[in-house]
Write a structure and sequence with these properties.
Blueprint: E1 11-13, E2 16-18, E3 29-36, E4 43-52, E5 55-70, E6 78-93, E7 97-103, H1 106-111, E8 113-120, E9 127-134, H2 136-154
Antiparallel strand pairs: 1-2, 3-4, 4-5, 5-6, 7-8, 8-9
């Protein structure tokens, strides 16, 4: 048994499988989930989270707000806001993850839902929120093991800095 095999996450919880991490297959989808609402437990299909190719991805549907002016020059110009729908996608490399935290309210504990915040060393994406996912505590533990494995795989050494 090699040293890194102990770090490979393998878990299954209530039918939601955290996939075995196959070192040979980089394109494998390891985990995916949607933002779950507390109303009728319907997943919000416009917010998707997944882990693949050594990254955590967040895809969400947003409305971009733009002001458009009407009227001729010199005339009383009126303006209105127009909302353009667009798909936003963020990602963070797993070996850059510094820490993660779980936030659960009362109803989140009752229904086993919560928000996982991933804190990274990435310059463009310092924090990544996975809002209202299933089994957040189990996911956070699994993510920690996966981050350690990715650091080992990429031979990344993490230096801890203490600041006053």
């Amino acid at each position: 048994m090699e040293e890194h095999e102990a770090l490979i996450p393998e878990q299954q919880h209530d039918g939601m499988a955290f996939s075995d991490y196959d070192v040979e297959d980089e394109g494998e989808l390891l985990w995916s989930d949607y933002k779950h609402s507390f109303f009728l437990f319907i997943p919000d299909l416009l917010h998707k989270y997944w882990i693949q190719n050594g990254r955590v991805y967040v895809s969400r549907f947003e409305f971009y707000q733009k002001r458009r002016a009407f009227g001729k020059k010199g005339a009383r110009g009126e303006s209105e806001f127009i909302f353009y729908p667009h798909l936003a996608r963020d990602s963070v490399w797993l070996f850059r993850v510094q820490d993660s935290r779980v936030m659960q309210g009362f109803w989140g504990r009752v229904f086993d839902r919560g928000t996982v915040t991933i804190i990274s060393h990435d310059k463009t994406q310092k924090e990544l929120d996975l809002v209202n996912i299933k089994h957040p505590l189990e996911f956070c533990n699994w993510l920690d093991n996966l981050v350690e494995y990715e650091r080992w795989k990429h031979k990344v050494k993490v230096n801890e800095f203490v600041s006053d």
